[in-house]
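Ticket #4471: structure output looks truncated?

Reporter: J.K.
Steps to reproduce: submitted the chain below (382 residues) through the standard prediction queue, then opened the result file.
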Amino acid sequence: MPDAYILGIESSCDETAAAVVCSGEQIVSNVVFSQIVTHQPYGGVVPELASREHLRAIVPVVRKALADAGQTYQSVDAVAVTQGPGLAGALLVGISYAKALAFALDKPLIAVNHLEGHIHAVLLEERQKGNRDLRFPVLALVVSGGHTHLYLAERQDNSWSYQNVGHTRDDAAGEAFDKVAKLLGLGYPGGPVVDKLSTHGDPHAVKFPPAQLKHRDRNDRGVARADDAPRFDFSYSGIKTAVLRYVETHTMQGSIANRRRELLAIPQPKFEDYLSRCDQATLDLVASFQRAMVEDLAGKTLTAARAYDVATLFVTGGVAANQELRQQFEKDAAREGLSVYFPSRPLSTDNAAMIAAAAYPKFLARDFAPPDFSAQAGMALR
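Returned output as attached by the reporter:
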């Protein structure tokens, strides 16, 4: 069939993004407007501010994505938008704009699950490389600031199905990175800073025992599931508390307060600014925290891969940009004889190219959104 150009729109959290993707496999344009500067003073995303910034940015971001792609509103074949999960107010900005645009242009409108978008970010780039021979089933770890999920992904013709075989019981992995960084006075977002600082510390200096999950997730009551289907859930609230207790028992509060104050005085701190203000005890703590996180994520994922006899691993989402995580998965997957794929770093974090790519199978199946669909902040992926 002829090429199909899909305009994707993403506004689930704190990035306003738009992209044009051709037939689910060629990025023609990809524009992301980040709100980091807006949220940095608060140490995390403020939902009301995120919604306001989306309102300001969405029109110019979409216009730029179309201009960069050499397309017009009339020339695209469909409009795709994130329906959930995410911040309700932020999602509604993208959905309202996409609805109005599709109605005015008389174009099909496609609703996309944000988590499926992250999985299709990997598929998109592998297709761009000419790799069309992925072995199934695929086990996908979607790990970011808001999500830590394990999915078995299967493809039948152009349709995809997903089975959740693990998720976090409390905090997402990326949330733990950000909150530990905030606790140590390292600013927001904390994941990239922790990743870089960890190479300067001893990853075995502080012992963090793995989380022990001794009962079935109470939130799964009423969910249809085979009793013998193994689960591989995560929990990261405990390690945050362990870092806090370590800080308290080793009287690190004073140095943290000084570091926070000095970094706030620098408009745009560079990595050297962070490194020069960290003593060895802090660097060892950061390295040990990251080691514990990476070992837990990789260990549970590889155990799930063996239990479900998968052929391929995907590791995607914002935390997939972590260098140590990538190295650990590459080493462990090679030992197990598994292929492992990551998105590039620009496509690891939230973007609209992944939304447009995930929309393409739905476009082929004519699976279009009804006019009355709305945001689903807690949307599940099936």
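Triage note (M.O.): checked the attachment and the full token line is present. The radius of gyration is 21 Å.
Status: closed, working as intended.
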